[in-house]
């Protein structure tokens, strides 16, 4: 059987809260990306981002929650192999976008996409698009090695939240030092033409560090199939709180404001899909450290999703009990 054309795969990465899902939704509105399959990976007990990808259909797949380590890399291979079979059966797919968790080290993902024989038969890595938060970017690059790797491997760097950070001079200088080949573009200019079709991905063009990371990944993958388990410090953990009954918005909002003011640096990511008392439509909540975006109402509840509230926290140096007990107290008082 003659194989079909190779399907380009774009890796969409960036640290927690940089705006990956927002960018993905904007890109998917373009008619040329109608036949795009989306794979979403998240860090934590319960994934939400796949519910917030606006074009939800059978081509949107949630990979197992967690880091893209050995278990999820196997899941990635299976997802792409299954997709290849559906393409062969006539399903139109022109491109695949993989949205990673913000805590993902891109090296194991790139290694899998470039070396797994099952993937290589039908897919080709077309490039890496990395989102960088203009507000928290410098601090994140200083404190999170995953963010450094995400920026260094990028073919395209997209700078988000520039409206909240009028002076990006220092951040741009840092990004140029990490990756001179990728000229950052503002999120407003991140059209499919500007950010996609960047490949094929060439590690050598990204510099010696990228080549070294991928070589180390190949060695580790051969000799220790559980080496990813320790990628993230015990200081960072994720959990999800759920409520079956509508939640009291005033109590939740007041507690989150207080938590942000006192422990904002520990809030690596907060995101929620909420059933608010007195509201018909779901409310989407996004926060990163000290920055909160205005809540957004969706046009409808995501298909097949039970009507309940889910709030995901990714925290650093902050116990779950502090958040859970404080939130319960404020909501009960409201």
From TrEMBL:
Keywords, comma-separated and alphabetical: Chaperone, Hydrolase, Nucleotide-binding
GO MF annotations, alphabetized: hydrolase activity; nucleotide binding
InterPro entries found in the cross-reference section: CobW-likC_sf, CobW-like_C, CobW/HypB/UreG_nucleotide-bd, P-loop_NTPase, Zinc-reg_GTPase_activator
Catalytic activities: GTP + H2O = GDP + phosphate + H(+)
Residue span(s) of domain CobW C-terminal: 236-331
UniProt keyword Nucleotide-binding present: yes
A GO CC term attached to the entry: cytoplasm
Pfam families the record matches: cobW, CobW_C
CDD domains: CobW-like
Protein purpose: Zinc chaperone that directly transfers zinc cofactor to target proteins, thereby activating them. Zinc is transferred from the CXCC motif in the GTPase domain to the zinc binding site in target proteins in a process requiring GTP hydrolysis.
Similarity annotation: Belongs to the SIMIBI class G3E GTPase family. ZNG1 subfamily.
PANTHER family: COBW DOMAIN-CONTAINING PROTEIN (PTHR13748:SF62), COBW-RELATED (PTHR13748)
Protein name from the UniProt record: G3E family GTPase
Organism name: Humitalea rosea
């Amino acid at each position: 059987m003659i194989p079909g054309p190779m399907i380009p795969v774009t890796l969409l990465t960036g640290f927690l809260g940089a705006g990956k899902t927002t960018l993905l939704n904007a890109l998917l509105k373009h008619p040329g990306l109608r036949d795009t399959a989306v794979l979403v990976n998240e860090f934590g007990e319960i994934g939400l981002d796949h519910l917030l990808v606006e074009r939800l259909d059978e081509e949107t797949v949630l990979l197992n929650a967690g880091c893209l380590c050995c278990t999820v890399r196997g899941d990635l291979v299976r997802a792409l192999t299954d997709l290849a079979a559906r393409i062969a059966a006539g399903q139109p797919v022109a491109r695949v976008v993989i949205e990673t968790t913000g805590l993902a080290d891109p090296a194991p993902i790139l290694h899998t996409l470039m070396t797994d024989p099952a993937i290589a038969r039908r897919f080709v890595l077309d490039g890496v698009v990395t989102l960088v938060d203009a507000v928290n970017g410098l601090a994140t690059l200083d404190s999170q090695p995953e963010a450094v790797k995400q920026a260094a491997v990028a073919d395209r760097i997209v700078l988000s939240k520039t409206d909240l950070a009028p002076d990006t001079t220092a951040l741009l200088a840092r990004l140029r030092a990490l990756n001179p080949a990728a000229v950052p573009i503002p999120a407003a200019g991140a059209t499919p033409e500007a950010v996609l079709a960047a490949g094929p991905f060439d590690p050598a063009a990204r510099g010696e560090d990228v080549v070294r990371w991928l070589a180390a990944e190949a060695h580790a993958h051969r000799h220790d199939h559980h080496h990813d388990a320790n990628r993230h410090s015990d200081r960072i953990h994720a959990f999800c709180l759920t409520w079956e009954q509508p939640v009291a918005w005033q109590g939740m909002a007041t507690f989150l404001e207080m938590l942000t003011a006192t422990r904002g640096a520990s809030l690596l990511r907060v995101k929620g899909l909420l059933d608010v008392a007195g509201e018909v439509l779901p409310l989407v909540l996004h926060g990163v450290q000290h920055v909160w975006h205005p809540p957004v109402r969706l046009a409808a509840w995501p298909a097949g999703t039970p009507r309940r509230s889910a709030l995901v926290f990714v925290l650093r140096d902050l116990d779950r009990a502090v958040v859970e007990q404080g939130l319960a107290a404020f909501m009960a008082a409201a």
